[in-house]
């Protein structure tokens, strides 16, 4: 065979260099995931560089110049106040992406804490926490976030909390499920028989092995969080600050001009869809990369 | 089977009780003063606050108020709006049919298109057909209801003038609201007014049904592919059964199981999605009522509607679980 001539043999070149390294390599070979990352990168770069790229500020313009169609001076036209739509979509990326991503992080932190306590402790604690989760899950979909915002009031922090709380049951259940399965695994029994403390078993042995479904779910949740945050903004429950551009609120303002200025729906709408597609593609890619047994 | 149903109901009851406690506290613990201040808004005079506090018994101990609240709920008394003074239960019965109509419309669209698409993709896995179906379902889960709603309204309403984009019925038609189901009322009024009612329903149903469409497509595709690899399917083919018989009898009967569960779960999500859809299409249902109540700080209505939505959601889940146990006897004995 080829060994005699010294040509590299394929299997030896593919030596495993650890779970994360392997997963990263698989992710980089997944074309849809790359497309997703490019979509996300476009908006992240746009958000960071908004003051340098955007031709105008988010609230620069005059009423005399309002509702202009797309033109070289205003690539995406101007809105009701005469603000440049392109600049507002760029600045809007700052609010919409950060609020969406931080909301998921809130949900992840809250959910995994509850899930770890429930799955780690078991028994009565588990029973009680799961009933609390059931109560939260009984309020369907975005309605829970809407109710919490109605209670907490307007503002970016309030939206992050509301969406975060409404996502936490999902993460709690996911982690608890994995932990309950892992409790019965041989290496946890081995660690316990060697005298490791319950906390050490939970943090060192169980959590790292329960991590991958959480990462995948959090990435997919970022897509729905961006949509939900925009939905709250659309319903008039957004940051409520006219100086701030937010994609959902931009759509509420322009819905009255569907006939005369449809581009005001098109551009912020496309921004939401493209960023959500990005996170969905990345999430699906991560799922395949982190779980090599899963083949489509 | 009866024991199974009873057990499932007993599981749902404490959840509703817990939610009622949270919602009860929701009104009492609102930031910015007591419940009377929250109800009356920030410009309330002290006299008015005292008046409302006394009238609603808000000065009594919390547990007394809670018992009172629960016993009123059990009698079907959900309180009255502080904006127009109308009973929540009465207004709900008028508005709920519109939401049911919208939800059923969306479900018909999503199931009617999603399951055939999923089967089609599963029959040709990794082909260009599968690719197109995958892209459609990716956009389906990535597009917000209101963006899709306005896009549909622009294309089919504003540009093409094919379909109405506003309300449930043409207000110029002489249709009496008898049942508050626009389609049934239109049938009762005769003169083929049903065409108008159905036309009004199409765009909102597509907007609301697109996310479930994507979900149903994905789950059907995955389920059919999984069942197709089972030994008994290979046996059926080896026996020389026709392709159609294998698909209908051996694959689909088993592939339906996960699909029905997801259809049930998504029905609850549709109720929540109706909040956004109804706002886009000026649909006079419970969803747009939730939004206007929150904007008006009408907390009694918000509190009651969330509880009602949760009850409906849990009931739908219960029906799905029972239906699932009916379809799949293995569940009943576990």
Overview of this protein structure:
The complex is a heterodimer of chains A (296) and B (334). Chain A has 296 residues and is mainly α. Chain A is built from twelve helices and no strands. Chain A has helices at 10-13, 19-28, 31-48, 50-53, 85-121, 123-137, 142-152, 156-183, 186-193, 198-234, 247-254, 263-290. In chain A, α10 packs parallel to α11 (247-254) and α10 runs antiparallel to α12. Mean pLDDT of chain A is 84; it is low at 1-6 and 8-13. With 334 residues, chain B is mostly helical. Chain B contains 14 helices and no strands. Chain B has helices spanning 2-28, 35-40, 46-56, 62-74, 88-123, 128-142, 145-159, 182-189, 194-228, 231-238, 243-280, 286-295, 299-327, 329-332. In chain B, α5 packs across α9 and α5 (88-123) runs antiparallel to α11 (243-280). Chain B is globular and about 85 Å long. Chain B starts with a helix and ends with a helix. The mean pLDDT of chain B is 85. The chains are: A mainly alpha (296), B mainly alpha (334). The A-B interface holds A 131-132, 134-135, 138-143, 146-147, 149-153, 223-224, 227, 230-231, 234-237, 251, 255, 258-259, 262, 265-266, 269, 272-273, 276-277, 280-281, 296 and B 14-16, 18-19, 22, 26, 30-31, 126, 138-139, 141-147, 150-151, 153-154, 158, 268-269, 271-273, 275-276, 279-280, 290-291, 294-295, 299, 302, 306, 309-310, 313-314.
């Amino acid at each position: 065979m080829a060994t005699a001539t010294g040509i590299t043999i394929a299997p030896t070149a593919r030596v495993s260099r650890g779970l994360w390294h392997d997963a990263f390599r698989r992710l980089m070979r997944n074309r849809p995931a790359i497309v997703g990352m490019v979509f996300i990168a476009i908006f992240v770069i746009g958000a960071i560089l908004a003051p340098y790229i955007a031709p105008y500020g988010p609230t620069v313009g005059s009423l005399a110049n309002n509702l202009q169609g797309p033109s070289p001076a205003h690539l995406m036209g101007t809105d009701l106040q005469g603000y440049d739509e392109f600049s507002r979509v760029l600045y809007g990326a700052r609010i919409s992406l950060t609020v969406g991503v931080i909301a998921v992080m809130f949900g992840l932190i809250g959910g995994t804490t509850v899930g770890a306590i429930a799955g780690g402790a078991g028994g009565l604690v588990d029973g009680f926490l799961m009933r609390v989760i059931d109560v939260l899950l009984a309020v369907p979909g975005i309605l829970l976030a809407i109710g919490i915002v109605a209670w907490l009031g307007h503002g970016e922090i309030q939206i992050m909390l509301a969406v975060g709380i409404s996502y936490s049951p999902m993460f709690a259940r996911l982690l608890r499920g994995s932990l309950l399965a892992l409790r019965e695994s041989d290496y946890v029994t081995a660690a316990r028989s060697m005298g490791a403390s319950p906390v050490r078993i939970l943090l060192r042995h169980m959590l790292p092995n329960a991590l991958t479904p959480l990462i995948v779910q959090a990435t997919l949740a970022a897509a729905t969080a961006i949509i939900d945050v925009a939905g709250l903004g659309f319903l008039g429950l957004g940051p409520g600050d006219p100086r701030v551009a937010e994609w959902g609120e931009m759509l509420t303002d322009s819905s009255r001009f569907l006939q005369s200025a449809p581009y005001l729906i098109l551009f912020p709408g496309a921004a939401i869809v493209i960023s959500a597609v990005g996170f969905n593609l990345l999430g699906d890619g991560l799922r395949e990369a982190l779980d090599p047994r899963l083949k489509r | 089977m009866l024991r199974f149903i009873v057990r499932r109901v007993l599981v749902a009851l404490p959840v509703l009780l817990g939610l009622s406690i949270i919602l009860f506290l929701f009104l009492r613990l609102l930031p910015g003063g007591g419940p009377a201040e929250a109800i009356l808004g920030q410009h309330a005079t002290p006299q008015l606050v005292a008046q409302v506090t006394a009238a609603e018994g808000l000065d009594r101990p919390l547990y007394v108020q809670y018992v009172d609240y629960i016993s009123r709920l059990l009698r079907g008394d959900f309180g009255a709006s502080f904006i127009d003074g109308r009973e929540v239960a009465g207004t709900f019965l008028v508005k709920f049919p519109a939401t049911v109509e919208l939800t059923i419309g969306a479900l018909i669209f999503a199931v009617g298109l999603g399951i055939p698409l999923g089967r089609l993709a599963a029959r040709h896995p990794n082909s260009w057909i599968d690719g197109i179906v995958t892209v459609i379902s990716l956009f389906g889960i990535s597009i917000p209801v209101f963006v899709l709603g306005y896009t549909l309204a622009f294309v089919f309403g504003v540009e093409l003038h094919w379909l109405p984009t506003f309300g449930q019925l043409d207000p110029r038609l002489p249709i009496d609201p008898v049942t508050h189901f626009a389609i049934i009322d239109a049938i009762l009024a005769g003169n083929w007014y049903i065409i108008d009612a159905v036309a009004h329903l199409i765009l909102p149903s597509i907007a609301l049904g697109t996310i479930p469409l994507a979900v149903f497509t994905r789950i059907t595709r995955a389920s059919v592919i999984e069942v197709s690899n089972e030994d008994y399917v290979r046996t059926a083919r080896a026996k020389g059964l026709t392709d159609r018989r294998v698909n209908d009898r051996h694959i689909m009967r088993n592939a339906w199981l996960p699909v029905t569960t997801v259809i049930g779960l998504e029905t609850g999500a549709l109720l929540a999605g109706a909040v956004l859809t109804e706002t886009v299409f000026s649909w006079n249902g419970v969803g747009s009522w939730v939004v206007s109540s929150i904007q008006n700080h009408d907390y009694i209505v918000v509190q009651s509607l969330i509880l009602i939505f949760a009850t409906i959601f849990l009931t739908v889940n219960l029906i799905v679980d029972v239906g699932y146990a009916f379809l799949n006897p293995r569940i009943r004995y576990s």
